[in-house]
């Protein structure tokens, strides 16, 4: 099986099919042959069913297919379909679907594509769509055991950040409600063609069977998280008042009943703190 993970291979494929990387879709093709086998193994794909988002030329797809029961690869760029038809031709356990992951009913896809068994998700995500894709998969309660994604290193820093860290943000707290996140390994910019301006990292989200906190309203919890980080340099009281449109004198007793200092900043809070604030507001 000829390797696709080289600059030469990528250039040959693009020349043959009259392609060029789409800046609008954030396309950077992997040319480091060590990355995809490692990512596939660490994703939990072995013996399981896999949904891959953004297969590109099929470099990761082939590694997944070697160890997984079945792979469904979702590719937005229809120009790549003929390429994938060639690069994946020798596999009978891969289905390529031309679709926009943001418009796709993932739960329906999983129910119709896999005959039982555990499901994991793998993706090499461009920066502009990292958070929307991850939150879509989590918010829709996708029945997957884990989500393994390659993202820009800055995004990985935020997603893996702990409370009190400057990298911590609304996405950090929101994701922590659904999954535990860990960094698997870093991927330098030179591993891609064309090379991006920043390094990347592979992270894995292991999805909880049940959230680590119970709240009266998930909708309120995420409203609180978003509002708290909206003006992160301000105190929690000011940020929540502005973000939720609630006067400070009404918020003060809410924060006190939740046991949260009004002068603290959002990144210092634990998920449990956001949950208590959310429940106190839900009771108003």
Fill in the keyword field for this structure.
seven-stranded mixed sheet; 40% helix; 284 residues; Rossmann fold; alpha/beta; 2 domains; elongated; two-stranded antiparallel sheet; Helicase, Ruva Protein, domain 3
Describe the model.
Strand 2, helix 3 (59-67) and strand 3 form a beta-alpha-beta unit. It is elongated and about 65 Å long. It has helices at residues 7-17, 35-42, 59-67, 81-87, 106-113, 130-139, 153-159, 170-178, 218-230, 236-244, 248-257, 271-282; strands at residues 29-30, 49-53, 70-75, 94-98, 119-124, 146-152, 179-187, 192-193, 200-207. It starts with 6 loop residues before the first helix and ends with a helix. The strands form two sheets. The chain has a seven-stranded mixed beta sheet with strand order 4-3-2-5-6-9-7, with helices on both faces. It has a two-stranded antiparallel sheet with strand order 1-8. The protein has two domains: 7-207, Rossmann fold (3-Layer(aba) Sandwich); 218-282, Helicase, Ruva Protein, domain 3. It is α/β, with parallel strands linked by helices and 284 residues long.
């Amino acid at each position: 099986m000829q390797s696709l993970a080289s600059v030469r291979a990528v250039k040959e494929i693009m020349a043959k099919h009259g392609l060029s990387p789409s800046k609008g879709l954030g396309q950077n093709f992997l040319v480091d042959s060590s990355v995809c086998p490692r990512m596939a193994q660490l994703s939990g794909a072995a013996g399981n069913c896999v949904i891959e988002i953004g297969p590109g030329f099929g470099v990761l797809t082939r590694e997944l297919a070697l160890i997984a029961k079945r792979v469904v690869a979702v590719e937005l760029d229809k120009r790549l379909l003929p390429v994938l038809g060639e690069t994946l031709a020798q596999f009978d356990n891969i289905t390529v679907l031309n679709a926009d992951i943001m418009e796709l009913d993932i739960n329906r896809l999983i129910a119709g594509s896999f005959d039982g068994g555990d499901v994991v998700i793998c993706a090499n995500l461009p920066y502009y769509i990292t958070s929307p894709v991850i939150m879509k998969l989590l918010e829709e309660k996708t029945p997957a055991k884990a989500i393994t994604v390659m993202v820009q290193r800055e995004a990985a820093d935020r997603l893996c950040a702990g409370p009190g860290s400057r990298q911590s943000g609304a996405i950090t707290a929101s994701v922590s409600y659904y999954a535990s996140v860990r960094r698997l390994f870093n991927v330098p910019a030179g591993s891609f063609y064309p090379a991006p301006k920043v390094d990347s990292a592979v992270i894995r989200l292991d999805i909880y069977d049940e959230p680590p906190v119970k709240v009266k309203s998930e909708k309120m919890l995420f409203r609180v998280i978003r509002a708290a980080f909206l003006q992160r340099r301000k105190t929690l009281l000011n940020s929540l008042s502005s973000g939720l449109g609630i006067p400070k004198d009404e918020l003060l007793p809410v924060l006190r009943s939740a046991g949260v200092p009004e002068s603290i900043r959002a990144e210092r809070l634990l998920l449990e703190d956001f949950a208590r604030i959310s429940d106190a507001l839900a009771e108003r």
